[in-house]
Amino acid sequence: MPAAAPRVLIVEDEPALARGLAEALRFQGYEVDLAEDGPSGYAAAKRGPVDVLILDVMLPGASGFDVIRRLRGEGHRVPTIMLTARGAEADRVRGLEGGADDYVTKPFSLAEVIARVGAQLRRARMDRGDGERFACDGVDFDLGRLLAKRGEAEIPLTPREGEILRYLRSRAGNVVTRDEFLLKVWMYKSAAVETRTVDNTLAALRKKIERDPADPAIVLTVRGAGYRWGGA
C-alpha cells in the first residue's frame, strides 16, 4: 500500500494567498487543509494529523504567535513555518523562540515555501530515525523523541533544539559559526542578517541541558568565533 501523502495545514486569512499556496502544494502531491483564523487553525492543528503547519502571524481571533506558543506548551511538535508580512528582526526572533521552525517573510515565491515544507518533512523523518541516541556530560539524549534526561529529570526539546544538537554533534571537533547555524539550521538564504537569534536560542538550550549554564560542558562557546560540541 502506498504511503499517505504528507498533510499540510495552512492558517492564513488572505483567501487568494491561501488558495495559491494550497494549489501549489497540491500540485506537488501534498494533502492540504485550510483555516482562516487563529482559533480554527489551533483546533485543526491539535486535531491533526498535520505533517507541516504554515502559520500566518496576523490572524483574526488569535495571532500566529499565540497559536504556536499554545501548541508547543501542550506538547504538539508539528514542524511550523511562520508566514508574515512583518520583516523586523524582533518579530522573527519572537516567532522562532516561540517554537516555530522556520520563518518566511512576505512577499515570497511559492517555490521557496514548497522547498521549506520539504525541508521540514526531511527533518521530521530524521527525528523519527534511529541512531539519534547518545550521552554527554551525564545527559542522555534521544533526538528522535526530542527528549533529554539527566538523572530522573526528563527535558523536552523543541525541533529547533534537536536540530542544533544534531548539527553541532555532526561537526564535533570544529567550530560552528553563527552564520553557519543561520544557513544550515535556520536555513536562511543569506547569513547577512543582524540577529541574536542563534545566541538567544543556544542560551535557552543551555538552561535546559547544562549542569551550570554559566560553565557549559555540552555546548561550548568559542569566544569570537562561535560554538563547539563538548562531547566526543
The named CATH superfamily of the largest domain: Response regulator
**Main beta sheet strand tally, sense and closure:** 5 strands, parallel
What is the terminal separation in angstroms? 42 Å
CATH architectural name of the largest domain: 3-Layer(aba) Sandwich
Measured by DSSP, the beta-strand proportion falls in 15-25%
Number of DSSP E strands:
11
Overall radius of gyration: 18 Å
Compressed to H and E, one letter per element, the order equals: EHEHEHEHEHEEEEHHHEE
CATH class of the largest domain reads Alpha Beta
The structural domain count equals 2
Give the spatial strand order of the biggest sheet.
Answer: 2-1-3-4-5
Based on CA inertia axes, which overall geometry fits? globular
**Helix proportion of residues, in percent?**
40-55%
- Which consecutive residue ranges, at least 5 long each, have pLDDT under 50? none
Number of helices: 8
User: Structural class of the helices, strands and pairings?
Assistant: alpha/beta
User: In the CATH scheme, what's the topology name of the largest domain?
Assistant: Rossmann fold
Average pLDDT, rounded to a whole number, is 86
